[in-house]
Amino acid sequence: MQRRLVTFSALVLSLFFIATTFAAPPAPPPRKPKLVLTLVVDQFRYDYLLRFRAEYTSGLKRLLDQGAVFDDAHYIHVPTVTAVGHSTVMSGATPAMSGIVANEWYDRALGKNVSSVVDFNTKLLGAAPNMDGSSPRRLLVSTVGDEIKMSGQESKVIGVSIKDRSAILPAGHMADGAYWFDNKSAHWVTSTYYKEALPAWVAKLNESKPSARAEKADWLPFNSKPGAKPFCNMTAANGDVPKCASLEASPWGNELIEEFAEQALANEKLGTHKGTDLLAVSFSSNDYVGHAKGPDSPEVHDISLRTDLLLGKLFAAIDKSVGLANVVIVLTADHGVNPVPEVNKARNMPGGRADAAALSKAIEEALSAKYGPGKWIVGREGWQPYFNQELIASRKLDEAEVQRTAATAARRVPHVFAVYTGQQLLNGQMPAGPVAAGVQNGYFSGRSPDLIVIQDPFYLFDPGTGTSHGSPFNYDNHVPVIFMGTGIKAGRYYQRIAVNDIAPTVSAIVGVQEPSGSVGRVLQEMWQ
Fold first, then answer.
1. β-pairing, 68-74 with 491-493?
2. Which residues are catalytic?
3. Are residues 103 and 131 in the same domain?
């Protein structure tokens, strides 16, 4: 019997050796492209691919038909907001690594909130003089573009969006330029971080007044018939037609972005250098419209169809100048969005508006009752508090105990799902589970709030109208991820992935070191 067992074990080991020795090696990555086009559609939920699929006829249709479509792609951090999402896409890092914890946060040294990209040592170029500029200096990790630059390749890296953070963070520290639209001046702008003067081609574009076409325009439904009622008018309310909130909150915002991307492609000669160039384009208008109207609105439907056409237009321009066979395209979104609470209520779904003022009041009253009166909260990121560390120290209090007291009070506020303290996060005392893991991934000591308060699913700490995002739930963290290009196997991929996987995958395709804070993996299952 013993001899049989030994013989059987030897046979198993022999078969394993033969299988591993002669198994087909994994496919190599696609050949190195001349250009990587990274597309981020702001607030484009994954389900927009499904709901409007039959109506896409251009760029999104091409990506869905010819690309590797990852159907179960998620962000693994909290909060799910614009700056954090855009910092993740080309760095592969979570906020715990990158330091980009929100769109803005309370800076204890300055005693005020700062944005994720504001840089008081730079100036804005192209707008009013002496305005503070922006830069990627608050981003503490590298991006794919940085790694391309540091590899010594002759390459160019350009970022484009309406929002400064959306242009800057995907492009990285060593970008040749990041450009965004300043609504006050109606100009494309950049920062002295990148250049001493606005490039001549950008100044020429500004002279042409690119936004003039929208000044008196109606936003009519896509493919509408004559006499159709507009969604809004850019000039002023007219009868029952409201005034559009802003240029950014209209289809013309995305049109300006696409046209600028084409100008950058031509004037920066992207795709013609010896190394791989990178163009990062973020379409922001979807987010402005989505906040105001919500994911179930005809306006979001409309701008999704228009985004499809703009992507097709951009692909055609790239095909003409570079050849799509020489390009790898990646599309994703920076976050999703919550349904409008009132819409959910009408369809008998959970949801509503939680009271941020009641949350702050409950915390302050609990701290004052236990430790004495004082200004306990010195700053906020949204509804999340930063506590007065000087007051805590002056009363010789234990910071962890103060945070626990505040957390206990916060948990009693209606529609609070969970509360975590900074000391919990620092000391590795988090409970198991995906929400706690997302909070841990999103926490960076010194920048993050002292309490992380998560609202119930479908609830918002927002007393106004419209909707928002930021939660750890699927409607906020489930987004598209699609790759398309020569050597990439088209099809549907249903295994769960993280958006953090994009950066190491692009790095492998380009042949450079993956970014310094990347926590993702290479999606080699799509190699042909």
1. parallel
2. 82
3. yes
Grouping H, G, I as helix, E, B as strand and the rest as coil, residue 478 is strand
Q: How far is the C-alpha of 63 from the C-alpha of 223, rounded, in Å?
A: 22
**2 Cβ contact partners less than 8 Å away, ≥ 6 residues apart:** none
Quick: pLDDT tens for 457-516: 999 998 889 999 999 999 999 999 999 999 999 999 999 999 999 999 999 999 999 999
Burial class (CB in 10 A: 0-12, 13-18, 19+), 197: exposed
Neighbours of 398 (CB within 10 A): 10
Q: Which of 224, 214, 225 is nearest to 186 (CA)?
A: 214
Residue 16 dihedral angles phi and psi, to the nearest 5°: -60, -45
Q: 32, 36, 52, 55: which is closest to 44 by C-alpha?
A: 52
| Co-location of 87 and 148 in the same domain | yes
Q: How far is CA 66 from the centre of its chain?
A: 24
User: How many CA atoms within 13 Å lie on the side-chain side of 152?
Assistant: 0
Q: Give the pLDDT band of residue 27 (cuts 50, 70, 90).
A: confident
Measure the CA angle with vertex 430, ends 429 and 431; round to 5°: 120
Q: What is the mean pLDDT of the chain?
A: 94
Angle between helices 200-207 and 251-267 (to 10 degrees): 140
Residue 443: domain span: 355-414+416-455
Count the neighbouring beta carbons within 10 Å of the beta carbon of residue 121.
11
pLDDT-based confidence at residue 282 (cuts at 50, 70, 90): very high
pLDDT per position as a tens digit, 173-198: 999 999 999 988 999 999 999 999 99
Do both 423 and 319 map to the same domain? Answer: no
| Separation of alpha carbons 368 and 162, rounded Å | 44
Is residue 18 domain-resident?
Answer: no
- Is the pTM here over 0.90, yes or no? yes
Which position has the token pair 């999606």? 523
C-beta of residue 166 within 8 angstroms of C-beta of residue 42: yes
